[in-house]
Each structure stands twice: as C-alpha cells, then as structure tokens.
C-alpha cells in the first residue's frame, strides 16, 4: 500500500480514478488513530515525564533508560516498562525489579506490588511508585485533537502532531475538538464554534513549543500565549478577546434565529444550537 498524492491516478478495473485533494483522501483511506499523550508527574518535585506515543517502549531505569531516576538505590537498572497503546490505554510492566513497583493503595502499605512481567493498565489519576523511596508519580494525559481554518496544513505541522499523538479532523466536534489552528484570525464558522465551545485558538507554533516541552520534560505552554493575530479589516479590534470566556457558552441560549436563506441556516445552525 502507499499514500496517494494530489493529482495521482490509478486504475480499478475499467475505471480510471484521479485524486485531486490529498488531505481528505488520505484521512478516508487511512484514518489516523487517536492516541492521547500520557505523562507522569512527580508528586514530590513536580517533574514531568511525557510518554511520547511515537516511542513504543519507555524504560524506567536508574541511569540508562528513558525515565531515569538517579540517586535512588531502590531503582533497578531496568526497573519497569511503559507502553502507550493505540487503544487509549497505557500499560505498565515491572521488569523484575528488586524492590518492586506499587500502584495506588499499595503505596501506603508497601505490600502487594504489581506482579513481575505482567502488564497492568494505568488510568488517569492513578499513582505509581517505583522502588521504596520517593519516586512517586501521578498518571495524567492530554489530547491534541485539532481542526484548522483558513490555513493549508503543512508537512511540518502533521509531523509535529504525530509526535504528540495528535490528529487533524475535518470538522468541529463539540466535546471532542481540543484546538483550532489558524495563522491569523478571521471570522469563520469554526472560529465561532471554538469561541463558544471554549476551545483554544492557536498558531501552529504552539505545537512546536509543546513538542519542545515534551522533549525537555517541562510543563506544556499556555495556549493563551499563541493566539493568532486578528486581521479582520472591518471589525474594531479594541476590547476583543479570543481566549476562554465562560459566558460565551450561553451566548445564544433562549434566542430565536430566523434565516432568510436555507444556505445560511446550513452554515450557522450548528453554531446557534451550541
């Protein structure tokens, strides 16, 4: 199999098929799996370790792994493994460590460590301790599920999102869409839905900053620092905010809208019903 590109042609039986739009065709033929970005946050010192989905196995070790826990003699050379799964799960395996790996209630009792070499599924909010000292972590996750408006998706943006476990959808989905990506802000239906739905509007550079944070083990950047420039020529800019404003969620509650033309209703019905 191979990906088809814009203007590619191929024959199926007696039919000659010409693909003219690369992005939509690729998503229909080979839909992207949605993998959330899991991370562990150290409860003692707030250190963050991101479990990148493009790395199939993360090794918890004393000095030669992916998550290295130094100055702790209870950590084995290869202590445990973390496996990000495409089915929206994170699995933990104790690699036969000497002092064990503990989960949730077993942390306080120092007994009932997880079995050796047996995968255990982790969930958001779980607490994990490696060894017998202070290596105590909380499990969390973030999802980069994005839509775009008025921009052409670049290979660089797709590559960055893939490393973050993110996806690019075609349409806004209430309760699922996480970010709207624009280079400059102009009024579009996707923008209005995002503002009402409290979805951050960011430039592509936001995801590059996220990837740098992941690679450096730092806290993810604030989307408010990556809001695109507003470029509407006939709208006054003073006092306009494109950040989260909770009052917008009820902006159209109790109002009745009358559309003169059916096509206007098609475009704006989803917005006023939010």
Automatic annotation (TrEMBL):
Keyword set includes GTP-binding? no
Q: Name one GO biological process term.
A: double-strand break repair via homologous recombination
UniProt keyword terms in alphabetical order: Cell cycle, Chromosome, DNA damage, DNA repair, Nucleus
List, for all copies, the residue spans of the domain called FHA: 66-108
| One GO CC term, this protein | Mre11 complex
Where found, per UniProt? Answer: Chromosome; Nucleus
Checking InterPro entries in the record gives: BRCT_dom, BRCT_dom_sf, FHA_dom, Nibrin-rel, SMAD_FHA_dom_sf
User: Which superkingdom is the protein from?
Assistant: Eukaryota
DNA damage: present as a keyword of the record? yes
- Molecular-function annotations in GO: damaged DNA binding
Query: What residue stretches are annotated with the BRCT domain?
Result: 157-212
Q: Which family does it belong to?
A: Belongs to the Nibrin family.
Under which name does UniProt file this protein? Nibrin
* Species the sequence originates in: Culex pipiens
């Amino acid at each position: 199999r191979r990906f088809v590109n814009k203007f590619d042609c191929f024959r199926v039986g007696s039919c000659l098929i010409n693909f003219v739009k690369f992005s939509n065709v690729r998503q229909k033929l080979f839909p992207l799996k949605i993998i959330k970005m899991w991370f562990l946050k150290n409860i003692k010192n707030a250190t963050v370790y991101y479990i990148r989905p493009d790395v199939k196995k993360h090794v918890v070790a004393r000095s030669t792994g992916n998550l290295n826990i130094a100055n702790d003699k209870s950590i084995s050379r290869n202590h445990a493994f973390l496996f990000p799964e495409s089915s929206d799960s994170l699995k933990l395996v104790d690699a036969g460590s000497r002092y064990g790996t503990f989960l949730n209630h077993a942390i306080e009792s120092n007994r009932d460590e997880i079995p050796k070499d047996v995968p255990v599924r982790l969930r958001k909010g779980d607490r994990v301790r490696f060894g017998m000292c202070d290596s105590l972590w909380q499990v969390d996750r973030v999802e980069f599920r994005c839509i775009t408006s008025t921009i052409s998706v670049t290979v660089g943006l797709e590559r960055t999102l893939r490393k973050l476990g993110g996806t690019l959808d075609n349409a806004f989905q209430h309760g699922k869409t996480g970010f709207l990506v624009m280079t400059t802000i102009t009024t579009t239906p996707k923008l209005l839905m995002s503002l009402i739905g409290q979805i951050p509007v960011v430039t592509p550079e936001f995801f590059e900053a996220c990837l740098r944070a992941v690679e450096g083990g730092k806290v993810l950047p604030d989307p408010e620092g990556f809001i695109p420039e507003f470029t509407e020529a006939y709208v006054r800019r003073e006092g306009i905010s494109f950040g989260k404003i909770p009052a917008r969620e009820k902006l159209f509650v109790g109002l009745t809208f009358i559309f003169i033309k059916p096509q206007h209703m098609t475009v704006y019905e989803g917005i006023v019903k939010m």
